[in-house]
Design goal:
The protein is an alpha+beta fold. It has one domain: START domain (Alpha-D-Glucose-1,6-Bisphosphate, Chain A, domain 4, 2-Layer Sandwich), CATH 3.30.530. The protein has 3 helices and 7 strands; from the N terminus they run βααββββββα. Strands 1-7-6-5-4-3-2 form a 7-stranded antiparallel beta sheet. The radius of gyration is 15 Å and the shape is globular. The relative contact order is 0.25.
Length: 148
């Protein structure tokens, strides 16, 4: 599996930031590529809950995120699947001076296994995935910490 990650510090109390992160209705404001939420099954962000969402036309297509672990005040790990990849995405929250460090990581593997795909992954896919995580965190950390 390949791994990519991004980290940013966000001003605001951890509880409010965490509540905002898990508010699926607000994801279109800051999740890179997300066009619409299609379904939420179960008590998100608890273990076993599922969110299905769709990206814009040039994006990932239909994405399914299933919660594998959740620790209030610390983070969550979800199994993520879309037409091109499968893997695990983890968000971690840690209080730091001046706010909360939000770390987002994705361990993934490409669903297609042609011999040349490893090169495509190294040159293009991993870079695009890292940029997407960075964009998501930049949008999240630049938004208001409090709920609307």
């Amino acid at each position: 599996m390949r791994s990519v990650s991004a980290v940013r510090v966000c001003a605001g109390p951890l509880e409010q930031l965490e509540r905002r992160w898990y508010d699926v209705r607000r994801w279109p404001e800051w999740v890179d590529g997300l066009e619409r939420i299609d379904a939420v099954e179960g008590p998100w962000p608890q273990v076993g809950a599922i969110v299905r969402w769709t990206s814009g036309p040039a994006g990932r297509g239909e994405v399914c995120e299933t919660v594998e672990s959740y620790q209030p005040g610390a983070g969550q790990c979800v199994k993520v699947q879309d037409p091109a990849i499968e893997g695990r995405q983890t968000v971690r929250f840690a209080p730091v001076e001046g706010g909360v460090e939000v770390a987002l990581s994705l361990e993934y593997r490409l669903r297609r296994h042609p011999l040349v795909m490893w090169l495509v992954d190294v040159l293009f896919v991993a870079r695009a995935m890292r940029a997407s995580l960075e964009t998501t965190l930049q949008r999240f950390t630049s938004g208001p910490a409090t709920e609307r």
